[in-house]
């Protein structure tokens, strides 16, 4: 009997050993199959050596301030190096997630057995996991989300194998750095650099112990332990991390107790590409960098001018289409949202802020209230009173048909009656106000009219010597008004075209002191059609006046007389050489500015007045670096001589008179700016557009203000002229620039002018400074 029991026992022991060895062999076979990619996905060694992560490209200002990022949805990740991490982050992560991180090779056997015994056998849910930091990195890199616990169980051994391979290929510091760069902290805060900025407004190196503990605590479950939605729960989790740091001797007990008593306070910065400085500029930069080679069939019939401009830019502008004209080492185009480029722009963050402040303050506090007051109670508002009811309705319907809602309903097969009913049915919506977005109930058609009430503006400022664009404001608010009025929008320029006309006259041998009769001319164009310009000012009517006086006071009659002695075709050629790319009709009325030009083109043209006749094209980017900091592109300014230095010596004093004694006099009287400065005001017919161009020896700026369309305008000239609508933005901007002593601009800076040069060439200067127009800017007055 004893022998029989002994044999049974031996068989049981033998069976157990067989099971044990079979299990060991099975586990070895399982891991061998996993390692060879026979079971599950095992990334090739090349991919393990260089895991693929999508990094947002970052846009920097010239003073090294981050302006924004180009990201994919849920991929707002910017690479950060290990030495840029706060030691608090590293200590908190190791203490909380992997206390034996420095001792194991990817798998912590003790932690695995603890997890199996306590969690699986004893059912303790809070016993802690067995995953190392390296295993968690393997999961972040290669494991998709599991639908159930069984699927997750099958992922574990694959992650173990990947973790061991990662440990062979990377140092411990590199593994921690990869983990922090990869983790998604929610709220579009992907990676530790984004998380530090989104939640605390800091860089990773600036994080305090309690802030680092908060972010590391989120690594357990960023949705559950999220400080925005669950502050109390996240504080509790943060304190657990701090306790682990005490346990690991990174902190003393007293330090830990003190840190746990600190409230969890955030400095939340929403990760939105429309937030922050220079949003219009960043969107312009995105479109230019990603532009594709123009193909005619991809342009609508009415886009022939754009096709022509894009085709020229593709061949001559290195920045235009840069991502598609330059290939990565693997032969693929650069991707702004994935390749982690560093784009260094010419924008100065301080000057950009001043420009945005000046534009916002003038529109919101002065101009828009005045416009609301003028239109209050008017049935035709926000349109001009000169429009008929039919014209107003036609404009509204045209805007409706261009709206996204209309296009979507039309594509969906909705009938016109259904669409019209939908547009006239009140619904919940948010609308723009200068104090923030407002929840309201309004019909889509009423919202179209409401949106039209708001005046638009564009502003650009650049260095006339090297072309560096210092400030770029495309509109009042990019979330509500996407159309960029610096580079995309073109509007009639009015009297700001006159300096170009006078330049042509000076090039043809005329002088500032030449005399013309200040009487209304009657001219005939090349088709025999009479043209009689108007001039609202009565100053010195009937007298002989100098060209210098006429330009300072923006006299239309004298401009027409100058044009009559020049060729419209020669004027068009000169305008193009000033940098105006749009089609221009060679007509005699061109002298009063009916042509449509962008703010960018006007600022470009005016650089020649500050730079001795040399026009410099705008330079938006100085260099681009790859994700590793290697410079992969440099950009330099492009220049072209437009007119001679002798003409410069004649035209500059005339343009300075505009500011000193002419229509730009508010710069001196209202804003107290004493700096040597030239400029020009501009107002188009019926006050549809207000312009101001101003320049100093080192800064050229341009402002446009107007309605969404020309029919939306002030009915009175006092507030509708360029000196009232546009000039104040420039004045406030320059005041702020000069007040900032960290900027290299001084009111004592002088223009380089040949003092020995006689601009009047022996003719007496008869300018009468007592006969000036102190406030009013003449409308372009194309027709009588």
Describe the structure.
Helix 5 (133-142) crosses helix 6 and helix 10 (231-247) runs antiparallel to helix 11. Helices cover 42% and strands 11% of the residues. The N and C termini lie far apart (131 Å). The radius of gyration is 34 Å and the shape is elongated. The longest helix has 34 residues, at 2-35. The protein has a five-stranded mixed sheet, with helices on one face. It has a five-stranded antiparallel sheet with strand order 7-6-20-19-18, with helices on both faces. The protein has 784 residues and is of the alpha+beta class. Mean pLDDT is 87; it is low at 764-779. It is built from 29 helices and 20 strands.
What's the structural blueprint in terms of helices and strands?
Elements: H1 2-35, H2 45-49, E1 57-60, E2 66-70, H3 87-97, H4 109-121, H5 133-142, H6 149-169, H7 172-182, H8 192-200, H9 209-218, H10 231-247, H11 253-260, H12 279-289, H13 304-316, H14 322-325, E3 342-345, H15 349-375, H16 389-402, H17 404-411, H18 416-423, E4 427-431, E5 438-442, H19 444-452, E6 456-462, E7 469-473, E8 491-492, H20 498-507, E9 515-517, E10 523-524, E11 530-531, E12 544-546, H21 547-552, H22 556-564, H23 568-577, E13 596-597, H24 599-610, E14 614-616, E15 621-625, E16 631-634, E17 639-641, H25 645-660, H26 666-669, E18 678-683, E19 689-696, E20 699-706, H27 717-720, H28 722-725, H29 727-739
Parallel strand pairs: 1-3
Antiparallel strand pairs: 1-2, 3-15, 4-5, 6-7, 6-20, 8-13, 9-12, 10-11, 14-17, 15-16, 18-19, 19-20
Helix pairs in contact: 3-9, 3-10, 5-6, 5-7, 9-10, 10-11, 15-29, 20-25
């Amino acid at each position: 009997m004893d022998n029989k029991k002994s044999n049974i026992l031996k068989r049981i022991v033998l069976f157990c050993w067989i099971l044990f060895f079979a299990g060991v062999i099975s586990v070895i076979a399982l891991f061998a199959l996993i390692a060879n990619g026979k079971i599950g996905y095992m990334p090739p060694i090349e991919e393990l050596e260089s895991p693929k992560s999508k990094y947002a490209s970052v846009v920097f200002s010239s003073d090294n301030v981050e302006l924004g990022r180009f990201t994919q949805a849920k991929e707002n990740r910017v690479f950060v190096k290990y030495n840029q991490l706060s030691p608090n982050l590293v200590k908190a992560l190791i203490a909380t997630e992997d206390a034996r991180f420095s001792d194991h090779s990817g798998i912590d056997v003790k932690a695995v057995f603890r997890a199996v015994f306590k969690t699986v056998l004893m059912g303790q849910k809070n016993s802690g996991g067995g995953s190392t930091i390296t295993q968690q990195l393997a999961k972040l890199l290669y494991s998709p989300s599991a639908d159930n616990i069984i699927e997750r169980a099958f992922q574990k051994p694959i992650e173990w194998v990947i973790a061991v391979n990662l440990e062979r290929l990377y140092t411990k510091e590199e593994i921690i750095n990869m983990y922090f760069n990869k983790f998604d902290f929610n709220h579009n805060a992907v990676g530790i650099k984004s998380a530090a900025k989104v939640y605390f407004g800091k860089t990773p190196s600036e994080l305090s112990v309690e802030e680092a503990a908060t972010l590391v605590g989120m690594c357990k479950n960023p949705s559950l332990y999220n400080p925005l939605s669950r502050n109390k729960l996240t504080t509790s989790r943060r304190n657990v991390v701090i306790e682990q740091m005490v346990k690991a001797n990174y902190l003393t007990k007293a330090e830990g107790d003190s840190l746990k008593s600190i409230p969890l306070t955030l400095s939340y910065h929403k990760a939105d590409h429309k937030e922050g400085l220079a949003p219009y500029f960043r969107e312009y930069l995105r479109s230019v960098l990603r532009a594709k080679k123009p193909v005619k069939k991809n342009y609508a019939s009415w886009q022939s001018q754009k096709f022509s401009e894009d085709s020229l830019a593709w061949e001559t502008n290195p920045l235009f289409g840069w991502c598609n004209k330059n290939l990565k080492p693997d032969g693929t185009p650069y991707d702004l949202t994935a390749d982690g480029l560093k784009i260094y722009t010419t924008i100065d963050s301080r000057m950009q802020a001043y420009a945005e402040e000046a534009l916002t303050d003038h529109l919101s506090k002065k101009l828009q209230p005045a416009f609301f007051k003028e239109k209050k109670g008017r049935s035709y508002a926000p349109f001009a009173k000169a429009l008929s009811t039919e014209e107003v309705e036609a404009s509204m319907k045209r805007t409706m048909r261009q709206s996204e809602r209309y296009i979507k309903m039309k594509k969906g097969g909705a009938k016109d009656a259904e669409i019209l009913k939908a547009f006239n049915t009140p619904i919940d919506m948010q609308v723009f106000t200068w104090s923030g977005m407002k929840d309201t109930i309004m019909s889509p058609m009423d919202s179209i009219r409401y949106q039209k009430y708001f005046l638009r503006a564009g502003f650009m400022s650049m260095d006339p010597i090297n072309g560096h664009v210092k400030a770029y404001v495309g509109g009042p608010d990019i979330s509500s008004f996407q159309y960029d009025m610096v580079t995309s929008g073109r509007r009639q320029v009015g009297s700001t075209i006159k300096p170009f006309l006078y330049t042509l006259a000076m090039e043809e041998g005329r002088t500032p002191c030449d005399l013309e009769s200040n009487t209304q001319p009657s001219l005939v164009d090349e088709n025999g059609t009479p043209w009689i310009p108007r001039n609202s000012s009565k100053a010195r009517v009937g007298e002989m006046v100098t060209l210098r006086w006429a330009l300072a006071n923006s006299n239309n009659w004298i401009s027409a007389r100058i044009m009559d002695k020049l060729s419209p075709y020669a004027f068009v050629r000169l305008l193009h050489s000033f940098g105006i790319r749009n089609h221009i009709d060679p007509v005699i009325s061109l002298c009063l500015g009916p042509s449509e030009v962008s703010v960018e083109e006007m600022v470009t043209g005016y650089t020649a007045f500050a730079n001795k006749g040399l026009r410099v094209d705008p330079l938006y980017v100085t260099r681009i670096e790859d994700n590793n900091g290697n410079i992969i592109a440099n950009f330099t300014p492009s220049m072209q001589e437009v007119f001679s230095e002798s003409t410069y010596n004649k035209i500059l004093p005339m343009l300075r008179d505009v500011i000193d004694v002419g229509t730009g006099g508010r710069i001196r009287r209202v804003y107290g700016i004493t700096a040597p400065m030239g400029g020009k005001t501009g107002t188009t017919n019926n006050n549809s557009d207000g312009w101001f161009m101003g320049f100093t020896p080192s800064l050229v700026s341009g402002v446009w203000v107007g309605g969404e369309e020309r029919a939306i305008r002030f009915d009175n000239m006092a507030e509708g002229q360029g000196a009232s609508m546009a000039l104040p933005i420039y004045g406030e901007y320059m005041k702020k620039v000069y007040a900032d002593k960290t900027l290299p601009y001084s009111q004592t800076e002088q223009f380089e002018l040949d003092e020995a040069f006689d601009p009047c060439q022996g003719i007496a200067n008869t300018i009468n400074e007592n006969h000036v127009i102190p406030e009013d800017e003449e409308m372009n007055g194309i027709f009588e």
